[in-house]
Amino acid sequence: MKRIFKLGLLVTLNLLLITSLHSQQKQIQFLSGTDATHTVQWDFFCTAGRNSGEWKKIQVPSCWEQQGFGNYNYGRDYKTNGKNFRFYDEKGMYKYQFNVPAAWKGKNINIVFDGSMTDTEVKINGKSAGEIHRGSFYRFKYDISSLLNYDKPNTLEVTVSKMSSDASVNNAERLADYWVFGGIFRPVFLEATPKQFIDYVGIDAKADGKFGMKVLMKNISATSILTADILDSKGNVVKTILGKALRGDSITILEAKLDNVKQWTSETPNLYSVRVTLLAGKEKYQVVEKFGFRTIEVRHGMGIYINGVQVKMKGANRHCWWPETARSLSNEQQLMDALIIKEMNMNAVRCSHYPPDKYFLQLCDSLGIYVIDELAGWQKAYSTKAGTPLVKEMVTRDLNHPSIIFWSNGNEGGHNKELVDDYAQYDFSNRTVIHAHHRPGNAINGIDCNHYEDYYSTEKILNDSLIYMPTEMLHAQDDGGAGAAMQDFWNLHWKSQKSGGVFIWALVDESVVRTDLNNMLDANGLNANDGILGPHREKEGSYYALREIFSPIQLKLPAQLPATFNGSIELDNRFHFTNTKQCSFYWALVDFSKPFDRFDGYIVKQKGTITSPDIAATKQGTLQLQLPADYKNYDALVIVARDQFGKEIYKWTSEIKTKQVQLSGFVTATNEAATIKETDTVYAITGGDVTVVLDKKSGNLVTTKNTSNDYVLSFNNGPVLVKGTATVASSKAYKEGNDVVVEFTYTGDLKTVKWKMNASGWTTMEYEYAVQGDLPFTGISFNYPENYVLGARWLGKGPSRQWKNRMAGTPVNVWQNVYNNTHTGYSPVVYPEFKGYYGDVTWMELSTVEGKLYIASPDNGLFVRLFDFYALSAAAKPHPEIPVGNISFLDCIPPIGTKLATGLTTNTRVYGPMSELNHVSGSKKRTLYFYFGLPKTTDSKENYSRPAIDNVF
Q1: Range of the domain at 118
Q2: Is the confidence at residue 62, as pLDDT, over 60?
Q3: Residues in domain Glycoside hydrolase family 2 catalytic (predicted)?
């Protein structure tokens, strides 16, 4: 029977009676460890594969493959082997002895499994605890009160079958595009309650302070009193609600209205607690649940609203994953994931493709992350018979988390529509059910979640009748997708009324440490390397891009501060609830480290605070700086924004000095005379210790030599146009003051190249070319043996390489990177990658086995390309086109696509304006400076030692 009570229906005397009695809560005894780091050893027998056929020991919780048992299976393996699943159907048999307290006799005692893959049969003291549980990712329990010994040890026996006896469970969970495992991978524990107890509560707390709670009870044998104390974050009781339950009642609903509640959102994750007490006779039993006051609305044709404000999700898809322990995680790893999501300025996560660990949801509650909680179903659905109990298990475990905004009823066609109505049976707040899909016709409840649309089809969907919230997009395999093209996509979604936001596939590369292959990292070819982050949460290039793109504070700070700068910067407040006056802003004037300094980055020379402007959420305004009069004497301006909790939102950099000024003292000139020697085939120009030899016929650099250490630097065979034609028409050598000049003129697209040698040894190359058309890149290239290179240090954009459609997240600074030949998403995992495109370079130092090579430019917008690399692997070609040569100096670079783009990276234009090829016309002039060796500077050595750095930021 269900009863509804509102505040004040019972007398205060009953409340006094309740508070005078000693209360008890559910008692917990862990049989396993509490997480992947804190485990307990059980006896174990594996029926097939490694270490099978004899009893051994295993840590619980764990995936047994990571403990050295059985065989590794990727979900696609099952498809390639037809329906012969028996090959994979290992079983794991567990045994464990335990005692229970004598004081538990007479109580209700359950054994609880938080997650076991896949079919799980449980016996206590040789007797069955109940029906076999089918389904991996759900909390299930058995009442074992009548099976226990209280005066001697108990024997727990668990048989876990890797494959389910229910075909629909295999279809939903196992035949999937991810690694599949076996074992008890989440904790196992006992819970003890009195005979009359509260099973669980369902909370519905609205933003306006309306509070409703369904209390589900068991075994109520006489009239009992219920009280609910609502506590704020400091533990103060802010409201008390009274009710009662009559004999046989199983449900009581308590209701109240609170004033001035602090609302829960991703920006204000305010949590309350409710302490529910059941007084049944002389027994007093309590349940405590955390919750938040918030209202979720899906306004059809308009958007998703939290507390009356339209909200757009900025999220990623997350599997429960760690390379060494697979789906069994530690609390520290789960906290790491939650913090990284927040660091990327995301506000949401989709728990794909199954419910996560309970602890992760608690972190989302407390940190402020919107959650899609998903029933498993990877392109195939559970049957109604198999799925019905699993919906109940998922919802009853998770229903009170304020972070959960939607229930997802499966993924990409794995939707059993007969289960949709089941969610509301258990969710007292009646959240909306969605379908995470990539097939037409699966939209539900006014929300279309279609996957992997391109930019232009996205435009069409956002102009249609439904809310559009792609629950997978911009597939982040290798270095493609994720941050690439996201700036265009996010601006499109941000400006659209009908956007519900976006979820990128996926958060991490899911490489597993193969215990059968000398602990190598295995991503199953190109199947599982889909992350914004590496397997151990290494930060790939897209991490940095997304952090800037998703920043809720958007500053229009130019790359080069204009000479007429008046301190005013346009600001777009993309918070949903936060006024910028709640944030804090800081400025710093900095000098970049110099080429010979022994450190990277910048030195803070002056700093100050900025008055926070009063700009409402989702509105625009200006940030007004008051800089000192001498601000132009410094290299750059840095601005930092922090949120109301003091967390850094983002840091922007704008250069103040021109590149020509920043190069003074490094690129030097002397008043002595350079020299030239000419033969029938070459020009040899010499300044100081450096000699550069140029071929008359091709116009190319042949060789360089530095006599100070008597080495030849193998930098040669350029300049060669990366796009276009060039044939030497004529050449000449002449004096220009004390410098010597060799000038080549060309027919074709390269017009002129002028080499100038100064007696300091610095060599200037001025060139002009004119190409036109839609081109991936333009500029010139040289050759240098890649295997000679040790590392690079540069003043320019970094730390990660850039693409035309992924320039965000790469501020100008002094960066350093040791040579590596890694491929994004593959072992060995080293970030940032050495090879690639680096933008807005002022100077670069290449360290080689032959010595140093210095490159500099006084012009803006120089890209330096380092060597050959594949950014996106695929079964089909072409791979991304790479310029000729292997060190290039470019004026534009190509975009990158995703593995799901039609034509791979040849058709990146479908991802929006920034993903189109470069529309090139007209001529381009540029100046480069080279030094082959270790140059002398006009500054003293002391000027290049590291001063004390003020780490204000």
Answers
A1: 31-193
A2: yes
A3: 297-513
Whole-angstrom Cα Rg for the chain: 33
Of 839, 759, 748, 852, nearest to 796 by C-alpha is 839
Average pLDDT over residues 359-380: 97
Q: Check: CB of residue 710 under 8 Å from CB of residue 950.
A: no
Question: What's the pLDDT at 897?
Answer: 87
End-to-end CA distance of the chain: 60
What gap in Å lies between CA 834 and CA 550, rounded to an integer?
26
Question: For residue 271, what is the DSSP state?
Answer: -
Distance, in Å, from the CA atom of 869 to the CA atom of 803, rounded to the nearest integer, reads 13
Q: What angle do CA 431, 432, 437 make, to 5 degrees?
A: 140
Classify burial at 292, counting beta carbons within 10 Å of its beta carbon; exposed 0-12, middle 13-18, buried 19 or more: buried
Residue 938 lies in a domain: no
Structural domain contains residue 313: yes
User: 118: cis peptide before it, omega within 30°?
Assistant: yes
* 53 in any annotated domain: yes
Structural contact between residues 930 and 762, judged by C-beta atoms closer than 8 angstroms = yes
User: Per residue in 813-863, pLDDT tens?
Assistant: 999 999 999 888 887 888 999 999 999 999 999 999 999 999 999 999 999
Q: Are residues 316 and 286 in the same domain?
A: no
Say how far apart CA 578 and CA 304 lie, in whole Å.
18
Same domain flag for 237 and 282: yes
866 within 8 A of 836, measured Cβ to Cβ: yes
Q: What pLDDT does residue 877 have?
A: 47
Residues 874 and 894 reside in one and the same domain: yes
The three-class DSSP label of residue 135 is coil
DSSP string, 883-941: -SSSEEEEEE------TTSTTGGGGGGGG-GGGSPEEE-SEEEEEEEEEES----SS-G
For 274, how many CA atoms within 13 A lie in the half-sphere containing its CB?
Answer: 30
Helix/strand/coil (H/E/C) assignment for every residue in 38-71: CCEEEEEEECCCECECCEEEEEECCCHHHHCCEC
pLDDT-based confidence at 872, cuts 50/70/90?
low
Token pair recorded at residue 884: 């000729």
Minimum mean pLDDT range among 80-94, 361-375, 793-807? 80-94
The answer to whether residue 9 scores a pLDDT higher than 50 is: no
3-state secondary structure 753-786: EEEEECCCCCEEEEEEEECCEEECCEEEEEECCH
Token reading at 375: 């029933």
Instruction: List beta partners, residue 691.
Output: 686, 705
Which residues neighbour 813 within 8 Å (Cβ) at sequence distance 6 or greater? 592, 600, 601, 602, 653, 795, 798
Residue 80 host element (H or E): helix 75-80
Q: What is the pLDDT of residues 192-204, one digit of tens each?
A: 999 999 999 999 9
Burial classification of residue 482, based on how many CB atoms lie within 10 Å of its CB (0-12 exposed, 13-18 middle, 19 or more buried): buried
- Chain mean position to CA 80: 31
Number of domains in the chain: 5
Using CA atoms of 360, 362, 366, 369 in order, give the dihedral in degrees to the nearest 10: 50
pTM above 0.90, yes or no: yes
Q: Is there a contact between 600 and 818 (Cβ–Cβ < 8 Å)? A: no
Q: What would the pLDDT profile of 546-575 be if each residue is shown by its tens digit? A: 999 999 999 999 999 999 999 999 999 999
Pairing outcome for strands 296-299 and 179-180 = unpaired
3-state secondary structure of 363: helix
Q: Are 185 and 327 in contact (CB under 8 A)?
A: yes
- Identify which of 930, 858, 920 has the alpha carbon closest to the alpha carbon of residue 560: 858
pLDDT in tens, 138-172: 999 999 999 999 999 999 999 999 999 999 999 99
- 601-653, pLDDT tens digit by residue? 999 999 999 999 999 999 999 999 999 999 999 999 999 999 999 999 999 99
Residues 743 and 887 in one domain: yes
